[in-house]
Amino acid sequence: MSKVLRVLSGVGGVVVLLTSALFTLGTSLAAPIGILVAHRRARRRDRALTAGVAWFTAAIASIIAAAIIFLALFALMPGNPFQEIQRGMTEAQTARDTAATPAWLRKAFPQSARSDSAAKEIMKSPGFLVVTVALSLLFACVFLGALGGSAGWVGSVLLCYAIWGGPPWSLYRTTSDPFL
Predict the structure, then answer these.
(1) Tens of pLDDT, residues 68-83
(2) Is 83 helix (H, G, I), strand (E, B) or coil?
(3) Which residues have CB under 8 Å from 53's CB, separation 6+?
(4) Domain extent for 133
(5) Considering the domain boundaries, does residue 179 fall inside one?
(6) Structural domain contains residue 137
(7) pTM of the complete model
């Protein structure tokens, strides 16, 4: 039964990694590399690798891969993407707002009825655009990296069980305690 379970685990690990690679732009494929780095570092320091550390390093590796992918896509965009984004923001801001503020909102928050010219000027500045794009890319990298790292972690654990007969944190123990 153990051989069948290991073969099924290997097939499941490959399916999870390849399927998750489609949905995470390939960032889940960086998760096994993160786990390998954490495993080697733990071995060098004569410490046990825990499941939490393995997952965390898989997520960090996927976040780094997502950042590289997003930066490469941003660099390969035709034209100057900052100018196009800023042009779109300017066009959207200059379009007349036809929706009026609801009466209940004006009554509850009288300051919402006035337009804030300082806020409009900040939104037109190029620095605001750079910060907004940078924060958006950061959140996208963390989100995609967490998803890809989690899926890559599951696939890596399944593959590790298929190849070596146990999860990566059970391969090198410094103590006989099975709960470490």
Answers:
(1) 998 898 888 777 776 7
(2) helix
(3) 38, 42, 169
(4) 2-93+102-170
(5) no
(6) yes
(7) 0.74
